[in-house]
Amino acid sequence: MSTLSDPLSLSAPRGADAGLTPQQLVAKYGLTVSGRRPGLAQYIKDLWARRHFIVSFATARLVAQYSTAKLGQVWQVVTPLLNCVVYFLVFGLILAGSKSIDNYVPWLCIGVFIFQFIQSAVQSGTRSISDNLGLIRALHFPRACLPIAFTIIQLQQLLISMIVLVAIVLISGIVPGLTWLLVIPAIALLCLFNTGIALVMARVGAKTSDMAQLMPFILRTWMYLSGVFYSIENNIKSWPKWIQVLADVNPAAVYMDLIRFAFDPSAGNRASLPPHVWAVAIGWALVAFVIGFVFFWKAEEEYGRG
Fold first, then answer.
1. From CA 230, how far away is CA 60, in angstroms rounded?
2. Which of 9, 85, 95, 157 is the most interior residue, by most CB within 10 Å?
3. Could you give the CA distance from residue 257 to residue 249 in angstroms, rounded to a whole number?
4. Residues with Cβ < 8 Å from 261, sequence gap 6 or more?
5. Helices assigned H by DSSP within the chain
């Protein structure tokens, strides 16, 4: 007969299970490892089942983002506009960039708004796991919900900003045309690309906390190399061919070109959009999303541990 003073073994099974090894207990009761990574098909199914949670989480975070500011959600529009004003003063007036590009203001604003979307998606994706460890450890759900939700937040902000962007384009004298409809597939591809990159950076950021500190410098370099403020084509004509190829396939430059030409077919003083741009944009979107999703899923059972 045991007493209160006897040591209690929680690991040794008693009664009918006495003498069974852990492996035998697992087989007998059909036990599974807590948080084990499901198969890819099951993971996609689980993620689809949480689609309402993803949208609700994204909307709630977006509303709360500016809840302490007096202007509230107005900052979603004011912030990119202020960036455009600063970049126009520096690159358009002081460095005379506006003299070489017709309709420079809408051209610049589209570049700033689109790169801001990419930059915010990458940065928020990098911190999506490390900043939500409490939620991850308290609730069971596919962890990919978080970087996808943060990408949706940035998409919602972009769509709000697009209202102002359309006003700028119209005020500058550009007449609406059927090419404006191409903005929709262009943004859809960009969103797919951003989601893939956010998934990659979410896993990297979860393992390497210093990455969040490094990302602003990487993204700033990417922005200066992507032709947000100037025409890449006009500045690298005499450069080696391989540099021109790299500039042509730069995903940020590709998506900015798509949307610039959708709004203004004569954007950048070019007669037409090069035929390879749409193919490159589709390729980047599919490759980034597939690789990003599989890369993130591979470490599903590791998030929030340690």
1. 37
2. 157
3. 11
4. 179, 182, 267, 272, 273
5. 22-29, 40-49, 51-65, 75-87, 104-127, 133-138, 145-171, 183-207, 211-224, 232-235, 241-249, 251-263, 276-297
Measured distance CA(10)–CA(21) in Å, rounded: 14
Cα–Cα distance, 233 to 188 (Å, whole number): 25
pLDDT, tens only, 98-114: 788 888 899 999 999 99
Nearest to 261 by CA among 277, 244, 250, 246: 277
Q: What end-to-end distance do the CA atoms of the chain give, in Å?
A: 40
Amino acid making up residue 178: L
pTM of the model: 0.84
Summarised one tens digit per residue, pLDDT across range 53-101 is 999 999 888 888 776 766 666 777 788 788 889 989 988 888 887 788 8
